[in-house]
Amino acid sequence: xxxxxxxxxxxxxxxxxxxxxxxxxxxxxxxxxxxxxxxxxxxxxxxxxxxxxxxxxxxxxxxxxxxxxxxxxxxxxxxxxxxxxxxxxxxxxxxxxxxxxxxxxxxxxxxxxxxxxxxxxxxxxxxxxxxxxxxxxxxxxxxxxxxxxxxxxxxxxxxxxxxxxxxxxxxxxxxxxxxxxxxxxxxxxxxxxxxxxxxxxxx
Length: 203
Ligand SMILES: C[S@@+](CC[C@H](N)C(=O)[O-])C[C@H]1O[C@@H](n2cnc3c(N)ncnc32)[C@H](O)[C@@H]1O
Description:
By secondary structure, the chain is an alpha/beta fold. It has helices at 5-12, 16-29, 31-41, 58-66, 79-88, 127-137, 161-170; strands spanning 48-52, 71-76, 95-99, 112-118, 138-149, 174-181, 189-195. The protein has one domain (5-195): Rossmann fold.
């Protein structure tokens, strides 16, 4: 079933009163995908993790709860999501929240051990461009985890596993692996994991 344009706009960029309800709904509706993403992140002590498009912030919360030595940064284009996450994590010194434009990431090269994005790839204007940005901010050997539904929220949009893998490959990621996610939502859901190569070959 096609999602009405008004709701689609909200899941892609929550704002106002409806946005607040959407953020809460997202945390509940996507709990399976978030649990899968957390397992695939395979966090270790002292990991510095970035989540792109954290929405309601449930996954960031789980990442921080997984190990007391982990630091987590979340970035999102939505002012509302950012404001509400800043409130949610105001007492958490290991968390940092940033509002971004959606085109690039305001972080230094090789800053993160792991980067995760759940249900956000549908909204990237330039998927390859964002994956290149993710690769830039990942340290060598760093891990990227992208979770998505085969059918994006926009009517007719498709995110085929083979296409996502080929975009990740084009961005330089290696050892790609995709697993299906069980959810109550219609359509297939996947989580694709890749790694920034340990050694950068000379050009
Ligand atoms: C469908 S929600 C998913 C939220 C959460 N990851 C989840 O699965 O529940 C998409 C989120 O990504 C954010 N977003 C959309 N485009 C973005 C972009 N280019 N960069 C970062 N965040 C983006 C939206 O503001 C929204 O909070």
